[in-house]
Amino acid sequence: MFEYIWAKISSFFSGKSPKTPLRLVVGLNQVDKMIPNGWNKRLNSPTDEAEKEIERRCKDIIKQLGKNVEISEENIEYYSALQRYRLIPLLTKIIQNAYAGFKLGNVKPADPFELADPEVKAFVDQQRQKKVDSKTKTLEDFKKIENIIPETDLKLILDQLQKETKLPPKVAVIGKSGVGKTTTINNLFNGQFKTSPTTVGTTEAQIKEFTLSTGGALTVVDLPGYGRSEAEDREYEKIYQDLIPSCDLVFLILQADTRDFSDDIEMINKITKWLKDHPIPKR
Predict the structure, then answer these.
(1) Per-residue pLDDT tens digits for 206-243
(2) How many C-beta neighbours within 10 Å does residue 251 have?
(3) Nearest 5°: phi and psi at 46?
(4) Most CB atoms within 10 A, among 47, 103, 164, 242?
(5) Please, what's the b/e burial string for 111-130 (b: 16 or more CB within 10 A of its CB; e: otherwise)?
(6) Which helix (H) or strand (E) holds 276?
(7) What is the rounded distance in angstroms from the CA atom of residue 154 to the CA atom of residue 157?
(8) How far apart are CA 91 and CA 102, in angstroms?
(9) Residue 57, Cβ neighbours under 10 Å: how many?
(10) Radius of gyration, CA atoms only, the chain
(11) What is the Cα–Cα distance from 79 to 97, expressed in whole angstroms?
């Protein structure tokens, strides 16, 4: 019952139909490597021609994935962690698909223009406008919700919101070795370690606690990479099944400039099943 109600309130904020998000986002990383000589270092962005080609190729990859997995474009985004390219669209997908995604609303990715020429960054800073206070908007939206959700359901939602806000958002990050997990975590979430990463049991999974630049905290579960050997994958699968159901979101990173996604497709399908078996994170 609560699962449906939670989906209903989430749909109010996102404007989507009231269905439970899968809690899985697939990121196509390293798109800056797709087009030789296609990156404008002065602006730290692709050239116009390269950007169109990157978009075309990524759409082809998304179609390819769509034929073999149960996720849609709403769950996939392309980006470059190293160049901090398209981190905002990526974060938007993460917030939309995460359980209690509003808790990730104060994440502020690293600024791509910090890597551009100083005069370019100065110009961009001058053109930027202040953002509207999201907290004020949230309060106004809750007043509107009272008119569309029964009082008993609204009380259940508010009680759950109070419980959720006491817990930092928990995101699992997974991918093959070399896909850029560490760079993605550092630049997307743009936080500082609260404590040194801790290893879970005797596994290679690491729990990383971050203090966000805008305030608040975030827990990242850095899962060991798959695809190196069948024996290793079998061992790691036990880790995945143990940790993934407790997360608000699973972020699976692919290397956009590769041609073989067979291991990734297999992993996406496994994660999809695990998340469907646990539509609400295990606490």
Answers:
(1) 998 888 877 788 999 999 999 989 999 999 999 999 99
(2) 28
(3) -70, 155
(4) 103
(5) bbbebbeeebbeeeeeeeee
(6) helix 262-277
(7) 5
(8) 12
(9) 17
(10) 19
(11) 17
Query: pTM for the whole thing?
Result: 0.81
Q: Are strands 76-78 and 24-29 parallel, antiparallel or unpaired?
A: parallel
DSSP per-residue letters across 242-261 = HHGGG-SEEEEEEETT-S--
In sequence order, the β-bridge partners of residue 251 are: 25, 173
What is the pLDDT averaged over residues 90-115? 90
Instruction: Report the C-alpha dihedral over residues 161, 165, 168, 174, rounded to 10 degrees.
Output: 20
Q: Which residue in the block uniquely carries the two structure tokens 């690491």? A: 206
Instruction: Look at the block and give the residue holding tokens 């999974």.
Output: 205
Q: Is 67 exposed, middle or buried (0-12, 13-18, 19+ CB in 10 A)?
A: exposed
Q: Rounded CA gap, 280 and 4, in Å?
A: 11
Spatial contact of 7 and 18, defined as CB atoms under 8 Å apart: yes
Q: 97 with 74: CB under 8 angstroms? A: yes
Neighbours of 71 (CB within 10 A): 21
